[in-house]
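User: Quick sanity check before I run a bigger batch. Here is a single chain. Can you write out its predicted 3D structure?
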Amino acid sequence: MEADDYPSFFQESDRLAVSAQRKQFLLVRIKLVLLIFSALLLSFPWKLIPTLTASASFSVAALLVALIALTVLIQSKEFDRLWINCRAIAEAIKTETWLFMMRAQPYSVLVQAKDDEDLFMDRVAMILRLRPSAASQIALSMKEAPQVTPHMKEVRYADLDYRRSYYVQNRISDQKKWYSAKATWNRKKEALWFTVAWLLELSAAVAAISVVLLENSLIDPVQIVSVAGAGVLFWLNARSYKEPAESYGVLASDLELQRNYAVNVDTEQKLSRLVSEIEETINREQKIWLARL
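Assistant: Done. Predicted structure follows.
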């Protein structure tokens, strides 16, 4: 199922979530680079080069001001909150979309098409009202488009066999592949940055010994390596690779089990119950991220 087949509220909240996440981590990267560069400048004995002392002092002061300004910018923009709230809205609307198309509760009783769509819009409105700050951002740049798309109607009014097969392929299998790929990616990133942090700690110990042995060393490498190590730990905390790796792996396993049950569904009641259970499983991811707010 393509992004254009979902409601426009989903499309815009998904776009904003991705954009806010990129901006948040871009600012964090810049902050880390400035911290390491500041440590490098501070570790050099500029007094030995009188002609550069004033310039070096000015550069360090400018870097410290930039760091303060960047910290204020990160806190004031709150890209992390916008990212998580928009992601929560996008995933909640996606869940609502699949419930609607599969005729699962609360859409399991077939009534007039207009009543179905009105109920869907009421529930989308409720999702948006729960996160007013993010909803206001979404509304600013959202294009005019139907919330109940033609593709959603087409799937909803198809027969049971088609909807079951469509759900298995486009929701369960697709989501399971996404979780599996993300779990693997997060494990690799965690291992990489953990190794980097360990090597920096080892380097700090070696640097400390070298300072003692080389009394005439111009640059103090201990400060640089220590700041770099602290920066890596800060990055690991900001990205939180470990928690998603574990949760995505569990979700992928759960979805694989439910996929095997789904292929044997042969009644509307069973499909409705299964879809509700699977959407609840997928929604566990939202609760993990919302706990960080």
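Residues 101 and 156 are 4 Å apart (CA to CA).

User: Great, the batch can go ahead then.
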